[in-house]
Design goal:
Elements lengths: L6 E2 L6 E5 L4 E3 L6 E2 L1 H13 L23 E6 L5 E5 L15 E5 L8 E2 L6 H12 L7 H4 L1 H4 L3 E29 L4 E24 L6 H7 L8 E2 L9 E3 L9 H17 L9 E30 L2 E8 L5 E2 L6 H28 L1
Parallel strand pairs: 8-13, 9-12
Antiparallel strand pairs: 1-2, 2-3, 3-4, 5-6, 5-7, 6-12, 8-11, 9-10, 9-13, 13-14, 14-15
C-alpha cells in the first residue's frame, strides 16, 4: 500500500500543503510559510524521537553476615505498625512515629544490611534547642507543645533511604514565539515569529534520595533535604548505639517511580533554563525524552530526630535533620487562645476607632 506523507504545521498543528505560487509549504489556517527543507528536517526530528527509557539495576543493600544481628533488637508498634531496630542496650518506651507507648521487643531479623550510614552530628540537646527555638514566640500554640517534658520525648531515628545514581541523555523540544509591534499614521502592526527549539545534552545524577518508609511522609522527608553525603561512612552496627533505625517497608524496586519523577523534574528545570532570556514572548514544551544509563541503587540510613505528638485526636510529626538542624513540621492552633487574641484585637481596634471619632468631633 502506498504511504501518504502529511505535514503538520509546527505553529498551529493544522495540515499544510505546497503553495505553487510561493514555491513553499503554507498553512491555510495560520498563513505561516515554510521552506520544504525546514519541514523535512522538523519531520525527521519528530520521527527519531524516542520514548523515555528509565530502567534501573535495583539491587541495593547487602546480606547480613552470621551473628552480625545478634546484638540488634526489633520493636514493633501495635498502633501504627512501625518497626524499628536498635542495639540491645537501647530501650524504646514509645513509638517514634505515632507516640504510642505500647511496643514489643523481639530479635531483629530479615531486611537488607545498609551500604552506608550518615552518623548523627546533632545530639539530643541540640535537637531540643532547635525545637524550643521553633516554638518560641508562637502564642497560639497549645501549652502541651511548650512543656519541657514533652520535648524530652524526641528520639534519634535512622531513616532508610534508597540512593539512585545514573547518567541521563536528554532531548527536549520547545515551541517559542517572538512578537514585534509597530505602527504608522494609518495602522498598528503586530508580527509574530514562531521558532522550533531543540535542546540536547547529558546530565549526571548522584545519590537521588527516596525514603523507604511509609511511616515517614514523603513531603516531610524531602523538606529536610539536603543531607551531606560526603559525611557518609560504610555501615556498622555500632552507629546504632543509643539510636533507633527504621526498618524499610518500601523496597528499592517500589521506589523507582519516585526516583524517576525527581530526575524528570530536575532535568526539565535544567533544560527549561536554557531557553530563557532570549526575548521570546512565550516558550512551550512540545516533547522530549530521557534515556538513563548505568543506573544503580544503594541503601543508606540518614539521621533524623523525630517528635510525635497528638492533639485533639490528630497526630503531629516534627522532624529535625540530624546533620544541619533544619526542622520541619505542622503546628496545631489553640482555638481558645486564638479567639481570645481575636476578640482582644477587635476590642483594641474598636477603642482606637472611638478615640479617633471623638477627636474629629472635638475639632
Amino acid at each position: 500500500m502506498a504511504q501518504v506523507q502529511e505535514y503538520k504545521c509546527p505553529c498551529c498543528g493544522g495540515a499544510i500543503a505546497f503553495h505553487a505560487k510561493l514555491q513553499k509549504l503554507k498553512c491555510p489556517y495560520c498563513d505561516t510559510e515554510f521552506e520544504i527543507e525546514t519541514l523535512e528536517s522538523y519531520d525527521r526530528e519528530l520521527k527519531n524521537e524516542r520514548a523515555d527509557e528509565m530502567t534501573w539495576d535495583a539491587n541495593a543493600g547487602k546480606e547480613w553476615q552470621e551473628k552480625e544481628t545478634d546484638s540488634l533488637r526489633s520493636y514493633v508498634c501495635h498502633s501504627c505498625g512501625g518497626e524499628i531496630a536498635c542495639d540491645e542496650n537501647t530501650a524504646a518506651a514509645s513509638c517514634p512515629f505515632c507516640g504510642n507507648p505500647v511496643v514489643l521487643m523481639g530479635r531483629f531479623q530479615g531486611a537488607l544490611k545498609p551500604d552506608y550510614v550518615i552518623p548523627f552530628q546533632l545530639d539530643k540537646k541540640a535537637a531540643k534547642e532547635a525545637l524550643n527555638q521553633f516554638y518560641h514566640g508562637k502564642r497560639l500554640l497549645p501549652k502541651v507543645f511548650k512543656e519541657q517534658n514533652h520535648i524530652e520525648e524526641i528520639k534519634g531515628v535512622y531513616v532508610p533511604f534508597w540512593l539512585f545514581d545514573a547518567g541521563a541523555d536528554v532531548n527536549m523540544r520547545y515551541r517559542a514565539t517572538r512578537v514585534r509591534a509597530w505602527s504608522d499614521s494609518r495602522y498598528h502592526y503586530t508580527e509574530t515569529s514562531f521558532y522550533s527549539i531543540t535542546r540536547e545534552g547529558s546530565l549526571c545524577f548522584e545519590k537521588v534520595p527516596v525514603d523507604g518508609s511509609t511511616k515517614m511522609p514523603d513531603d516531610l522527608m524531602e523538606s529536610l533535604e539536603p543531607f551531606d553525603f560526603s559525611k557518609a561512612v560504610d555501615f556498622k552496627t555500632a552507629y546504632l548505639a543509643g539510636f533507633f533505625a527504621d526498618k524499610y517497608d518500601v523496597d528499592s524496586g517500589q521506589s523507582i517511580g519516585r526516583a524517576n519523577e525527581r530526575i524528570q523534574k530536575s532535568a526539565q528545570e535544567a533544560f527549561d533554563e536554557t531557553v530563557q532570556g532570549f526575548g521570546y514572548a512565550m516558550v512551550t514544551k512540545e516533547g522530549g525524552s530521557i534515556q538513563l544509563h548505568d543506573g544503580s541503587v544503594k541503601y543508606a540510613l540518614y539521621p533524623v530526630w523525630l517528635l510525635s505528638t497528638r492533639w485533639n485526636g490528630k497526630s503531629y510529626l516534627f522532624a529535625v535533620n540530624g546533620q544541619s538542624g533544619k526542622l520541619v513540621g505542622d503546628l496545631p492552633l489553640d482555638k481558645g487562645a486564638y479567639f481570645k487574641w481575636l476578640f482582644g484585637m477587635a476590642g483594641a481596634i474598636a477603642v482606637a476607632v472611638y478615640a479617633l471619632t471623638y477627636l474629629i468631633w472635638l475639632i
